[in-house]
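yo

u said u wanted the structure for the complex thing, so here. seqs first:
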Amino acid sequence: MIRWIRQQLGFDPPHQSDTRTVYIANKFPQHGHYIPQRFADNRIISSKYTIWNFIPKNLFEQFRRIANFYFLIIFLVQVSPDTPTSPITSGLPLFFVITVTAIKQGYEDWLRHKADNEVNGAPVFVVRSGSLVQTRSKNIRVGDIVRVAKDETFPADLVLLSSDRAEGTCHITTTSLDGETNLKTHYSVPETAVSQSVSRLESLQAVVECQQPEADLYRYHSQSDHPNPPHTLGPENLLLRGARLKNTKEIFGVAVYTGMESKMALNYKCKSQKRSAVEKSMNTFLIIYLGILLFEAILSTILKYAWQAENKWDEPFYNQKTDQERNSSQILKFISDFLAFLVLYNFIIPISLYVTVEMQKFLGSFFIGWDLDLYHEESDQKAQVNTSDLNEELGQVEYVFTDKTGTLTENEMQFRECSINGIKYQEINGKLIPEGMTEDSPDGAEEELFLKAVSLCHTVQISYDQVDGPGDPFSHANGFSPQMEYYASSPDEKALVEATKRMGVTFIGSHGEIMEIKTFGKAEKYKLLHVLEFDADRRRMSVILQKPSGEKVLFTKGAESAVLPYSTSGEIDKTRVHVDEFALKGLRTLVVACRHFSADEYQEVDRRLHEARTALQQREERLVEVFNFIEKDLELLGATGVEDKLQDKVQETIESLRLAGIKVWVLTGDKHETAVSVSLSCGHFHRTMNILELVKQKSDSECAEQLRRLARRYNTSAHPFCETPSPLYTLFRSESHFTQHGLVVDGASLSLALREHEKLFMEVCKNCSAVLCCRMAPLQKAKVVRLLKTSPEKPITLAIGDGANDVSMIQEAHVGIGIMGKEGRQAVRNSDYAIARFKFLAKLLLVHGHFYYIRIATLVQYFFYKNVCFITPQFLYQFFSWMSNIVYLTLYNICFTSLPILVYSLFEQLVHPHVLQSKPALYRDISKNSLLSFKTFLYWTFLGFCHAFIFFFGSYTLMGEDTTLMGNGQMFGNWTFGTLVFTVMVITVTLKLALETHFWTWMNHFVTWGSIAFYFIFSLFYGGIIWPFLHTQDMYFIFVQLLSSGSAWFAIFIIVITCLFPDVIKKVFYRHLQPTSTQKSQVSVRLPPQTLQL
Amino acid sequence: IMASSYGAKEEDGHHPGSAGLGGAAIRTKKPDNTAFKQQRLPAWQPILTAGTVLPAFFIIGLIFIPIGIGLYVTSNNIKEFELDYTGTDMSSPCFNCSQSWNSTNTCKCELFFSLDQPFESNVFMYYGLSNFYQNHRRYVKSRDDSQLNGDERSLKEPSKECEPYRTNENKPIAPCGAIANSMFNDTLDLFYIDPNGKKRPISLTKKGIAWWTDKHVKFRNPGGSNSNLTTVFKDTAKPVNWHKPVYELDVDIENNGFINEDFIVWMRTAALPTFRKLYRIIQKNNDMTPTLPRGNYSLAVTYNYPVRSFEGRKRMILSTISWMGGKNPFLGIAYITVGSICFFLGVVLLFIHHKYGNRNNSSDIAS
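structre next:
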């Protein structure tokens, strides 16, 4: 289905076949049947609009939002004649909102257009008809041979044909694609590698057969029919669009996927819109208010007709209808009356709410970036806000999913210990010192072999900083330039290679198939025969090398669980013990082994490898098979322990999150023991915690059994009297002093548990205060997040991570936080918020989250309250007939009452930030969207209605007594009545907010008193002049007359006070009888101790 | 104790900017350490506790109760007399007039009443209508303020809002609209019947019944200084229901045309269907006798205004006035009630404050 839609939308062209055939340089066969295939051109389109469709498309998109659509309808109704308010009242704000949004989106799209044009128009060199032609990037067609020079990005997905190097390799970085910063080597087929010039490329006749475009960055296989024999191409031959050429002067490649079919474009995913819980409850409230609105409108209409049934009321002699009114049809009139009431009451759902919320979010989010406490001095990075839509969600988090490496830890690997041949060594000052033994020098040969293995078995690249052009790395190698720097895809490898360098076995570089190391000053060259790449399932990598002596040897390095079972000789048991010891210290361990091949064995290995690599079908499966065949009968050399330092204050942060009622889950790709030890050291697991394990489950039933066992164990130990623990109990329990539980799950067991026993698993998880998932694949991380997110309680989740492997989890969670770490900026770019260190999370959630939540919650509630106050008197007046004043209607939400709430929602601080941070438990006060619960919503609405009734009936009783209110006996009219209600309303509504405000900065004072003053000044001004261009002068001097009446002043005071004092009483009673912990902490902070002497 | 205080903000613990590094060239992304950006603006942080609001409630109570009593007494001292002269009742002298209404014949009736108490000072005479929806939307809109402000163009071409009272026989109506058209046109005259049975007319002032700004700014006759209103209004038609054109409302040039005060008063539409409008003022005498002494009076009504069709009532009201207006016990009662409640709540709060207030605070400090 999705595929169909995508095809219709033009994302995927309909696939005619499973493969596409690319004729290099578009030299199609002259004979034979050839069906030309159609490929997309190389134009990248990331923009959404064109000049022509911008207005209709953008409007359509905008009016798809329910609120906008609603306001559009109201506007259209107002345009129709005979409505009490002019269309301007809702048209203007709507127009404003729509225009601002359109301008913003248009600007963003313009930027995208600019970027697209830049990309599409970038000059590229293409080989056409025997010469190098400069053209624009968008003109590249599939089959073109493209030349790319150093430090340029690839304009399309290219298959590498040749580079300026003899062996046809080149280095690229894929930072912009997957965030990996290391240099990667890509290869060309030997037959084409010689075609290093345009003229020689001209004579090249070849065909590439490859799959249809797909998004997976790491999967590619195809076959190149260079006359004969066919070569298999893999990801190592493919240069992806968006990657950058490094350390290589120039390369030639043939375009296989272009434009929107390139892997980068296919991976380009629109970030789905995340919506906050507050927004969701806001929508619920909106619907309720829509109901109230409809009810009021219908009631008014019905009452009107009931009242009009008699002619004497419908059309008394003093108030005749026009002929047109008299003749229009009853039904039409009924509808138009209904619409008129709808329009009159529509202010109950204020468009300004949306404007204010947007403004509050946008402006409020600056405070995160400005916060010095979230600024990291060393890396000079401040917190970054990518979406301001989720500010308040930071105050609602219930689950935190955190990555370990780079998030909890520094991701700065430091080699610490190793075990060689059953003896443990520690690195001290660049020397390996055996543990327990004194100056006893280690066995030279074994140590050397181990170090050599470590320094050879890797995919580390070397970059020479000052070198211009790659040239020959060996020319510098002899000088051993200090600028030499290692680049590795995993920081472990880098740490290991650097460690061996310190110990005297230096990896100098690889040149083609030659790897050179310097062992204690003596250079040795190894021929690299094969690399058995690392993959997440095998969890090991190997190299097959030819020693200088001609012997062929395999070095393997990998997780202990992936290497030890295949080892047959060496100190296996001792090493295993050592590895466990390393893991307990929180070190990341790798096991190193080797295997010597006899000539025959190597022949066999070589043949099978070649077969598997050239296989067109099931190549991956066959490769795995061959790898397993090769990586066996290993001789164990030893193990390494690399330390990943914990970040600053991780323990404190996790502890405060826990106190705040947030459950912390650590999701890591690391191995079980390491993960547990890091968990312990960072305080995620306590020593006192009862640790449940769900690891190494092989089968479904076994897993289920284990889960049930865990659940039982949990129930008996924690709650002997409760058979079925309800979530409520869980909540209490986590606060009580029962034994706390921690759960360890590994990836494999997790996938089993998730497949069949999701419920049981969730049950166990919920009862554990800390969960650790190890050996997790990126997608599994996202799956866990989704599982929690969609569980019946619908908790708010937060994911925090630093690497490309955390992106899926970051995007999945309600709030995604990126750590600006060492693993590129992929996570940061996909996150909603980015911070430099894990410890900042505490302030971000406990202080900023708390503030934002309280601010926005009050903002939303107050807006509804204020509009109930506003509209209900109008509704009540319908019983006595009413004309509303357009100017006041419009200005109410915009000028008189909007600024105080905006300022409130930007600056309010219920409690001092230090208190929030030092008492994380306060976070629980706002959990579960408690300030926007239905109860509080009802309270505010009820309050609004009450106040409205008091305004209206207060004024009504005053005026309805039918006596003059002025000292000169003159009478007031309907406009004065309206103005009195309105004045009381503005004052009350503003003061109500003042009662809510706990933090009075000069700005609050300014806008609060300023709003009231502005109302008075505006009214005086507005009523003080006969407005030349207005038809009616209804408001002329009304306000002055009102204020000249002493009774009116007395009435204003009494009404305002009557409205507000019950609210004050309610607040005081609650504070004293049922204080929340937030309120308690307010008092304790505010009251200096000596005042308690009273 | 005051739970609120100006939060003495801690001295900032951060070193300002990167100035310490000495090198101005070093540009860091470090946020500025300003009170605004760090959300450390000095602020007053009031907290509503029993202790804080207690005094407020007592003060409100102590202020409101006397005010309420004052207002109530003031209101009670005001004398008011109301007389319904609609004539729905067979026994009413105006019964005939109310039944047989036609626009040509003027019908007169006279009602007798007596005042039990003398009315001191200025007495204000109102007419009151009920069931009259002057606040109906269609009605309220049906006027042209430009025309009433003396705009010549609007005089010739009244606003569309005036429909169906905009033109008559192809002539623009002046003043146009439903409000003007339905202007109250009963004439009320008051007589004092002295103890020996002689009817003495009471002089009624018809100036000062409209708002000063209405009379002098909002309403203006067209034609500027042209004092001959007949020529000014010559191309216009009178409102359909009127007996005489607008320029014949009064002989006094200062009270004629659009600036006729009765007209202006009528044009100020009432808020509620039962309303009263100021009709005349009875100025107090200079001597010591009350303005309206105790005794018998008669009200002579020129019965023009029909209210039977909408079941309306017509009243004549005589009232004295204080600085706060007419008789209105509501404010006094409200002040007394709210004041008492506040005082009572203050007592409750005092109790709460003693029972809970200290406990809360101390327990929290201890924690």
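The beta strands of chain B are 80-84, 107-115, 123-130, 167-168, 171-172, 187-193, 199-201, 275-282, 295-303, 313-319. The first strand of chain B starts at residue 80 and ends at 84.
cya
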